[in-house]
Amino acid sequence: MNERWTWRQDKVGAAHRVTFEGDLTERSDFTFLAQELPEETTFDLGAVTRINSSGVRLWLAFLSALDATGKRYSFERCSPAVVSQMNTVSAFSAGAKVKSVLAPYYCSMCRRLHLEVVETPPGVHFQVKDGLLCSVCGLRMEFDEIPESFLAFRQPQSSLEPLSRTSKQP
Amino acid sequence: MSQPSPPEPRPPSRFAPGTPARFLVVDRQETVGAAMAAVLRRIVPCEVELRARLTAPDVHRDVDLLIVSYDELSLVERSLLTVYVRREKRGQLVIRSNGACRMDFPLLLEQHVLTNYVTEVSQRRVHEFGVTIQKLLGSEQSGVEPYFPVVRDRLSRQVASSVEIQAVLEEARAFVESKEVREWLAPRFVDVVDELLTNALYNAPVDPAGKPLWSTRARNVPITLPEQARVDVQLVSDGRRLGVSVTDPYGSLTREALLGHLAKRFRQGGNTLAARTEDGRGLGLITCLRSLTHLIVNLDRGRRTEMIGIVDSGISIKQHRQAGTWFNTFQSEREP
Question: CB contact, 8 Å: A55 with chain B?
Fold first, then answer.
């Protein structure tokens, strides 16, 4: 039992949404969730704080279970931890529509990190949103990543060998 | 007719202490090479030669350490590095790069050319570079503290079972958060402690015949180290950097396995590192490389393996990415 990993299911009209929160690790037992989900689900990943290598394998197994039954899913508000794994593990988001990510902005006056929701429509090149102002001091914040590599998972990966979702534990 | 196999890489020769170290620095940019030479002269008594190009006679010379700025080397020069590592009685090799030639990394790792990698040696990193050079010249410095001349806070734990991992991670999280570091850093540092500790508990232990005990066991199945064995975990802070070292008492990791794992997991695709998990290994290592500013592996075959991670706690995510991650492997010369 991982008290740091939780999820909540919400249904608004026909839209089904699962909001995950916490640390995705070997203690995150949620693979049975795939059976409960309808034909199409949005995963809100904004509150996923940490993902270790065991958690990646559980996530891939979860997505494989969805794929096996033809269920569709999309990702929204992908946290920095999720974006990092999507950039590192080619199958972490394969098959999913990634609709938005949380982009890090930093206020050097307040020394505070702000996460801004950025839409990521397919085929549209990522542009840094300039001119964001800190909600505390009002000064301009700086995008705190390298724009060219921030969403590297969206770049063509013809020479990559995709991670197998059927890889066994561990 | 099949081609003969290329000669195996050779271990470097031992530097003779008490004599000035002999360095050869190869860098197209004269000012950068001169700056490197100046840094080296501050670290140890040495003779430094500067070259703009690497030539065949250079790789056969007796030097204690060859430092090359890799990105500007020609294809011929790059191939000479393979000749260098296959020489009998050769010196150490440090590759300096800004990552522009990442597509070469798999081959360089497989050929044992890329065993020590640095990016820019900024003023902030001179001390770490100095310890690196001293260790390459044979100084048997273990632990994370040589890299921290000033320690403001430390935390030490001995771990015997995987059921203790969560408690150690909570302590690591509290340790980091008490240091007023950048917000992005705390979860990333906990990631590193998690991966290194899990690796030490599950992948490192072997039986007397050298067979892995638990490397294929699911990580949610608890294990307890046998016979009073313990994994040592150290966390340190000097106010601007955080350090972690995780030491297992088995020493089952070889340089060949380490470099081979890394080579398999480095692929070209823009700036992406793609990882494979067919054997469950390596993804943790990639996480460490992405989260740290310096990863050091001290290998003592049959005795212990020490993984050390250092991260600059005062920089932004962007600065962290731009600085790049240093990587060093040190092999003990004691008999296994």
Answer: no
